[in-house]
Amino acid sequence: MSYPTRYPGAVWRPVRNYTAGGIVVPTRGLIVHVQQGNGSLFGWFDNAASQVSAHLWVSKTGAVEEYVLLTDRAWAQAAGNRFWISVECEGFTTEDYTPQQLGRLAEIYRWGMAEFGWPAQITDDPNGYGLGTHRMGGASWGGHACPGDLRAGRRTDILAAARGYPTSPPPSEEDDMQLSDEDVARISARLRADLFAEVLTAAGEKTPIRQGSAGMTLGSVYLKAGDLQSRVYALETEVARVGSYLSTDGALVAWTRAIGTDLAAVRADVARLTAGDGGAVDLTAVLARLDALSARLSSLTLTVAPGGTTL
């Protein structure tokens, strides 16, 4: 049975540090390493003096490079090189994986489960099978603590994600398809239509503003703003009506002027009595005016209501 030599999601960058053949297939699983640095490892792995390499490298952005064919032996974990695929990960032991790295590692392992029969399990046994770490090999694997407790503990997340990923990995970044201007315009038009439909749906019912999609929220806000605007307008109308009664031409001012006229007439009659000018004064008429004023004042009411203001 033949097994794949290349991971389809990686950029192929062959290096000189490897052993042709020499790996037992199908391999036991995947061994994760930490780079203790940043940037591509191509130059270091292609340097004959370094005497190290790995099959794969995953950057913090999720980019993948392949340096050694998966049927050849990389120089990553000494005695473990004959049985395991190795992957170096950008960063340091004190740094967690980025979400992009976790996703890409999950995709690689999912692919290995389909192609090599790797079991969906974590292992810390150098003679076992599954998702392991460099440190599990002990002295025979170089006696390293790689990749550190933080990243070793993330294998549970990698494995869980691997079970939910499609078998085929996404294409490498070199194969990304660019959207045309026509594609962008069509997508934009569809989004605008969907948003407008949601606005109309939300604006068609009188319910409290609630969280939801952008369109539903905008529609609900639009509806409530309309209600508020109509209430403010009604209040302004009532205030203007009350103001008209209090203005110089209002009913209240006219009533007050009438009272003033009657009082002036009474004062004139009283002045004639006190002046001693001998003029005749009809006391019955004066008393009648006073009784009328008293009755008018005692019956005064001012009603202000949404329908109008009356005296």
Short account of what is shown:
The protein is of the alpha/beta class. It is built from 8 helices and 10 strands.
Note down, in words, how this protein is organized.
- The chain contains eight helices and ten strands.
- With 311 residues, it is α/β, with parallel strands linked by helices.
- The protein folds into three domains: 11-175, Peptidoglycan recognition protein-like (Lysozyme-like); 181-246, no CATH class; 247-310, no CATH class.
- A hairpin with a 2-residue loop joins strand 9 (303-305) and strand 10 (308-310).
- Helix 2 packs across helix 4.
Q: Layout of SSEs?
A:
Layout (H helix, E strand, L loop, with lengths): L10 E2 L6 E4 L6 E6 L7 H4 L10 E3 L5 E3 L5 E2 L10 E6 L9 H18 L13 E4 L15 H4 L2 H8 L18 H23 L10 H33 L4 H25 L7 H16 L4 E3 L2 E3 L1
Parallel strand pairs: 1-5, 3-7, 3-8, 4-7
Antiparallel strand pairs: 2-6, 4-5, 9-10
Helix pairs in contact: 2-4, 5-6, 7-8
